[in-house]
């Protein structure tokens, strides 16, 4: 199986040795290395009832690449550790790696190793590595009062897609919403075009924008106010009840868009980066100085009523 997934040639010139030894070797100079790891458990993070085996691999790697995008890093390499139950056929495992490779090919990432063991439940652990110029990593703690709050793309599509897959019926824009869930596309190009911006706080929307904004607010010691009617919802969400729309756009997660904060002065540079990379961005609010409510996210409705947006979303240990 290892031979079947091993690359025939490396995409990254800095890779000295990939799969085939006890460890991989890569060489970088004058760059910061960024790394992240995520764990994916069958019937917790994915299900064969709602996606193909190839899509399982694609989506798992996409989630990790989105973490690199949130840091402003260029994806370089990935490691895969996998627990394989006996009910999974070798060709199905191969398809998981095929799905990963489909996305890795887009970003010229190299698979540089991992581990395989048997077990009772399919588990994937993916570790990704990226790089960026010294001191240019983007942190949640970089938001300041007066900053404009923005999000890329649209929200709620992944949750709506999952709902459509698990509640068969006739829906508008069904294929688009399902694709949001099964094959998200990380905002790497957009974040890589922000190098000219001196300061921008970023977070990827994996657990819902309410949770991600609260993390930025807490890390930066600020409060954040957003306008409910400015949140960009995925096409087709309006066909669902208002309660589900609000649940999905704020707390649904797995959209793998980016939410961030940037100074009003540097906003034009952000708009330029969005235009260059064909990325939809939306101004949704502002960062505030509020010592008594540090870490709080306020939501303002169309009537001007202000209320706290709960810090909730997907909780891995729930």
Would you kindly provide a written description of the structure presented here, covering whatever features stand out?
The protein is α+β, with helices and mostly antiparallel strands. It folds into two domains: 2-133, PurM-like, N-terminal domain (60s Ribosomal Protein L30, Chain: A, 2-Layer Sandwich), CATH 3.30.1330; 140-308, PurM-like C-terminal domain (Phosphoribosyl-aminoimidazole Synthetase, Chain A, domain 2), CATH 3.90.650.10. Helix content is 31%, strand content 26%. It has helices spanning 2-5, 53-71, 90-107, 157-166, 174-182, 188-192, 209-220, 242-252, 267-276; strands at 15-17, 25-26, 31-41, 74-84, 110-118, 123-133, 148-152, 200-204, 223-227, 258-262, 281-288, 297-300, 306-308. A seven-stranded mixed β-sheet has the order 8-10-7-11-9-12-13. Helix 3 links the parallel strand 4 (74-84) and strand 5 (110-118). The longest helix is centred in the first third of the chain and has 19 residues, at 53-71. The protein starts with a helix and ends in a 10-residue tail after the last strand. 42% of the residues are buried. The model has no long low-confidence stretch (mean pLDDT 93).
